[in-house]
Design brief:
By secondary structure, this protein is an alpha/beta fold. The chain has one domain: Rossmann fold, CATH 3.40.50. The chain contains nine helices and eight strands. An eight-stranded mixed beta sheet has the order 1-2-4-3-5-6-7-8, sandwiched between helices. The chain starts with a helix and ends in a 5-residue tail after the last helix.
Length: 273
């Protein structure tokens, strides 16, 4: 046997693994610049449509942070048979800013990002094949985007998300996105998830969690109580932890497994052809 064969085989395996992580760039008129994204694409024996999870980063993070938090995301995506998309949109809070006209991140996410991913990758192109979640600022963006665009996302989540932003008027650059609370309090209320329970409907599958020592814990617990009162099915997890990488490394796996089950059930519900 050729002594080089084991080395060549190992090299090919590494290359195949590397091909799962794609550094892509999405043109955006709504943001006025190209947007970087990490796309984790499982390898399959035959061309098939795969479900997609949009995984959103937090404040002062970028498209690479989820891979830094969970370097095994490619292996998880492969095992679950899902595409993971991590866009890098800066500190936009995933909204169309009322005070920064060139910052239209919600429009980018809804009208440009999803369309680009669907046209460039083998995705399932309906809401039953799409989920969205994220950490902190990304969790806020995920729940709000899913609530405002239920035709796009069949499932949504948030880990350590600021469900109630009003207690934090001077934090995390929100004044640059929503205006100062002193002068734009109504805008802040308009964008405050906890004040808009109509964003949550039984047609969408929800998972959200927060560490018991996290400064966002009470807002998450309050949302849980509201959804119970509204009889909106959801999975809420209150567990030990704080607002840090160690917590998100664990919690994101809960989300991925939740969405994988959602995709499986929604696929089983499709009519046979």
């Amino acid at each position: 046997m050729n002594k080089l064969f084991p080395f060549i085989f190992l090299l090919l395996c590494c290359l195949a693994h590397a091909q799962q992580v794609i550094r892509d760039t999405i043109p955006s008129q709504h943001l006025g610049h190209d947007v970087p994204a990490v796309v984790i694409l499982p390898t399959t024996e035959e061309k098939q449509a795969l479900p997609v999870i949009y995984l959103l980063h937090g404040y002062n993070q970028n498209e690479n942070d989820w891979l830094a938090i969970r370097p095994d995301l490619p292996q998880i995506a492969q095992r679950l048979g899902i595409i993971i998309v991590c866009p890098g949109v800066g500190n936009t809070w995933y909204v169309d800013s009322p005070v920064a006209p060139g910052q239209r991140c919600e429009s980018f996410m809804i009208h440009e990002l999803v369309a680009y991913i669907d046209s460039h990758y083998p995705t399932r192109k309906d809401r039953r094949g799409r989920a969205i979640t994220g950490l902190s600022m990304g969790g806020y963006g995920s729940l709000r985007l899913a609530g405002r665009h239920p035709n796009l996302f069949g499932a949504a989540g948030s880990t350590s998300g600021p469900i109630d932003i009003l207690p934090f008027p001077n934090r995390w650059g929100m004044d640059k996105v929503f205006g100062t609370f002193e002068h734009q309090s109504e805008t802040w209320k308009e964008h405050n998830i906890i004040l808009h329970p109509e964003l949550f409907t039984p047609q969408t599958a929800y998972i959200f969690d927060c560490g018991t020592k996290d400064f966002f814990h009470e807002g998450n617990a309050q949302l849980h109580r509201i959804l119970l009162e509204k009889k909106v099915p959801h999975t809420y997890i209150s567990q030990p932890g704080t607002h840090n990488i160690a917590y998100w490394r664990s919690s994101v796996l809960q989300h991925l497994l939740f969405f994988a089950e959602f995709f499986r059930v929604s696929m089983d519900a499709l009519p046979s052809t």
